[in-house]
Amino acid sequence: MTDVHHSHNPVDLAPGDEDEGRIGPRLIGYVVGLGLALLLTATSFFVAGTDLVWQPSIPVAIIVLAIAQMGVHLVFFLHITTGADNTNNVLALAFGIMIVVLVIGGTLWIMANLNHNMLPMDQIMRMQR
Amino acid sequence: MSVTTMTPDLHQAQGLEVTDNPGPAPKRIVTGYGFWIFILSDMVMFSCFFAAFAVLSGETAGGPHGAELFNLKNVAIETGCLLLSSFTCGMASIAADLRNRFWFQVAMAVTCALGLAFLWIEFHEFADLVARGAGPSRSAFLSAFFTLVGCHGLHVSAGVLWLLTMMAQVFAKGFRADIQRRILCFALFWHALDIIWVAVFSVVYLLGSGA
Prior knowledge:
The structure holds 2 protein chains of 2 kinds. Chain A contains 4 helices and no strands. Chain A has helices at 23-49, 58-76, 87-117, 121-128. Chain A starts with 22 loop residues before the first helix and ends with a helix. Chain B is mainly α. Chain B has a single domain (27-210), classed as Four Helix Bundle (Hemerythrin (Met), subunit A), CATH 1.20.120.80. Chain B has 8 helices and no strands. The chains are: A mainly alpha, B mainly alpha.
């Protein structure tokens, strides 16, 4: 355990641990991650307030930028990579993303459908009289 | 025929390396993986709050909309605090791996200060909303807002308490293997909170004040 390397086992890596043992590249990784995250954040705040772009595209742009920034955080801060030593972590993440997409997408779909099929509230009130 | 089926046993008996079975994983990997599963389940819980917020974001019951309530400048400062604290948390991880007590404590102290700054701004925002009559009981939109953003704030508060605990443990016990595993889990937790905040400021504040 005196070594900087934690991987006694060459085939696996704990989530959050890095392949790289030297300080220099690790430091650069965090600096690059912070730079990209700040850039994406600044872009989405700028896009939200600007009238330079076509207005209906703004929500899509904000969501795309948010997903990109989550990817940056996963790679540069949480060190989830596509390497063979990360397979278990990536598979768990993929399952988590699947559940999140199902919950959010399914909720929005079903609730929009119910809203669409429901009578307006004043008509429901009239029928109850 | 029988010789080929017995080969693995023979290899083990002769003390040769059996490459396809490296044995149980080290404790650091098992602990980190278990905590990773917890973080993913936490994200699933947040996704339920996000789904509720997305459905209820238009149900203001005649009350104020997000565009009238949110101060995007404060949100930008909060975001900056959390991003920088994620960076300093990474510095603390490096210092912990190098077993450098001084820089570990400095990086963790900066992380703590940034986390507290975030909580301070968020607390004032909430207090201001309630004082303006836009508390969680005003409309379904505001209930969903306070649940989602408040839940993230509670996670950050718990993270700050954990952070202080880790500083005390390293101060008292040094970089033992079990303490190093706790530092790994704390770093995972803190970085994951940042990911959730990215979704919060995008979906709640930016989309909410645009609509």
